Amino acid sequence: MHQKITIVDYGMGNLHSVKRMFARIGVEAIITSKWMDVRDSEKLVLPGVGHFKKAVENLKELKLWDCLNISVLEKKIPILGICLGMQLMAKFSEEGYVNGLGWFDADVVKFKVNDTLKYKVPHIGWNQVVINKPSPLFNDVDLTSGFYFVHSYHIKCHKQEDVLNETIYENSFVSGIQKENILGVQYHPEKSHDAGEQLMRNFANM
Predict the structure, then answer these.
(1) 144: which DSSP letter?
(2) Which of 67, 95, 123, 190 is catalytic?
(3) Disulfide engineering: 190 pairs with which of 21, 37, 131, 163, CB 3.0-4.6 Å?
(4) Which of 2, 51, 83, 166 does the annotation list as catalytic?
(5) Per annotation, catalytic residue among 28, 74, 188, 197
(6) In CATH, what class is 5-205?
């Protein structure tokens, strides 16, 4: 059953492409930077593109930081983090050397590749994901076409049970995480055609 989705606007995300994807599948979504809307939400999406430290500063300035913690950790509101939004769920990031929300025992680190001719940083384009554990987020998702990525940093989980997806880019890295009501993906489902559409539909139905 669809519930209204709240897309958190903290000044660092391709918010409208996320909202357009939900509109395509008939799901009502609002974009807001008001902590009161986040507090009263039924489901949350935390998108994000850009610098980790700036994202933390913006969330705190808008009074969204504490509100997100209450909504997600205490009220157990389902949340989907996308790209930087997922990285913010970690304890710490090398990008700006600041603490994240700390919902996962994880750090955000910069890509280190040996073959710099074959593997460019940032990692941009289509890549495959492997599902590490069962999740309703992937019901009926066709993985063959892959998902679209744009990032220079990736998350490093210290608890294997939190890892939802992995992806190969010279080496394996964590591309999806899940713990109870908290989900995060490094890729952009809103830019990933049919697979992304089904993933977003699954989240709306969770």
Answers:
(1) G
(2) 190
(3) 21
(4) 83
(5) 188
(6) alpha beta
Is 67 labeled as catalytic in the residue annotation? no
So where are the chain's domains? 5-205
Active site residue 83: yes
Please say if the pLDDT value at position 47 is more than 70: yes
Q: Give the distance between the most distant pair of CA atoms in the chain.
A: 48
Residue 3: the pLDDT is 67
Structure tokens at 13: 């995300």
Q: What's the pLDDT score for residue 2?
A: 62
From residue 185, how far is each of 63, 128, 155 by CA, in Å? Answer: 24, 13, 10
Nearest to 45 by CA among 171, 137, 120, 161: 137
Structure tokens at 182: 């908290």
Instruction: Please state the pTM of the whole predicted model.
Output: 0.96
d(CA 156, CA 163) in angstroms, rounded, equals 9
